[in-house]
Amino acid sequence: MDIVYSLEIGAVAAVAAILGSMLGLGGGVFLVPILTLFFGIDPKFAVGASAVVVVTNSVVGSTNHLRIRFTNPRLAMLLQIATAAGAIAGALYGVLADPRVIYIVFGAVLVYAAVSMVIRSERRVTAPPPGARDTLRLGAAFRDPAIKEEVGYIPINVGWGMGVGVGAGVISGMLGVGGGVVMVPVMNLLMRVPVKAAVGTSTFMVGMTSVATAFVFYSRGFIDPTLVVPAIVGVFIGGQIGSRLTRRIKAQRLALLFALILLYLGLSLLLRAFGVEMPGQA
Amino acid sequence: MTDDRPTDESDAARATALGTAELAARTERLEPIYDAAVKTLFWGFRLGAALLALGIFAALVKRQPLGHEADPIPDVIAKVRAGYASGIIDLAILWFMLTPVATVIVVAANFWRLGDRRYALLSLVVLAILGVSVALALNR
Question: What is the domain extent for residue B111?
Answer without folding.
Answer: 42-138
